[in-house]
Amino acid sequence: MNALDFLDKNNIPQHVSIIMDGNGRWAKKRGNPRIFGHKNGVKAVRETVEAAGETGVKYLTLYAFSTENWNRPKAEVDALMSLLVNSIENETENLIKNKVRLQTIGCRESLPDNVNRKLDAIIANTSNGTGLTLILALSYSSKFEIIEAVKKIANKVAAGNLSEEQIDEKLISDYLQTASFPDPDLMIRTSGEYRLSNFLLWQSAYSELYFTPVLWPDFRKHDFFEAILDYQKRERRFGKTGDQIETK
Ligand code: IPE
Ligand code: IPE
Ligand code: MG
């Protein structure tokens, strides 16, 4: 029996987000340069996308590159961008076959032109995917996303097209890059770090958090299933009491 068989099919998180961390340490442990870890992280991405599809997760957001990651040495950033282009080329067919629809969040303008061209192509080529929506967070910063939303809202108010009373949770959510996706039910971070690193801060207000010491290149389907199993043991209370949830 595999871990997938233990999952409650009626309690699958609709949206899972993952902070894929630990590539550098994985490579270092093997006496290799950091990029070796990034390269080996691609298999983990493939397995995770497949595992998400198998469990019936509808949205999977992967934190692939943060705004802060631009501050890494140029050679590492360049290597990550090349890896992204190669991975898109290699994975497109498989994604289409698995009915995956690819989307992105983040500051696309800061990415190199060749990366943007590949992204536009894969987004167009997978747009009919009816299965999993795979959202890549690229050059993403949650604080920046919130700042941009606030600016747009402020402009509308200043122009008289929106009143202060209309500003509520729903409106702010609608101005974020994630407007068309539900909030993550489960957020996973690998590599034993316990922080959010500027990822989906607004959207994760009520996400269940799952931290694992597994380094990203070692992450496999069974690790994903284990995270979902852990999620299914939890009681999501959203501020209510346990009794209120049980008698619902
Ligand atoms: C995550 O692995 C990948 C990216 C941030 C692009 P890291 O490169 O952060 O690996 P560690 O955390 O240094 O081990
Ligand atoms: C977070 O990992 C960003 C991604 C996984 C893309 P980092 O390795 O950049 O995060 P910090 O700097 O350790 O918090
Ligand atoms: Mg890291």
Question: Could you explain how this protein is built, in words?
Answer:
The structure is a single chain. The chain is of the alpha/beta class and about 250 residues long. It has a single domain (about 15-140, about 185-230), classed as Undecaprenyl pyrophosphate synthetase (3-Layer(aba) Sandwich), CATH 3.40.1180.10. The protein has 8 helices and 6 strands. The chain has helices at about 25-30, 35-55, 75-95, 115-125, 140-160, 170-175, 220-230, 240-245; strands at about 15-20, 60-65, 100-105, 135-140, 185-190, 210. It has a 6-stranded parallel beta sheet, with helices on both faces. The mean pLDDT is about 95. One 3-methylbut-3-enyl trihydrogen diphosphate binds next to β2.
Tell me the structural class: alpha/beta
Give the N-to-C terminal Cα separation. 33 Å
Mean pLDDT: 97
In the CATH hierarchy, what is the architecture at level 2?
A: 3-Layer(aba) Sandwich
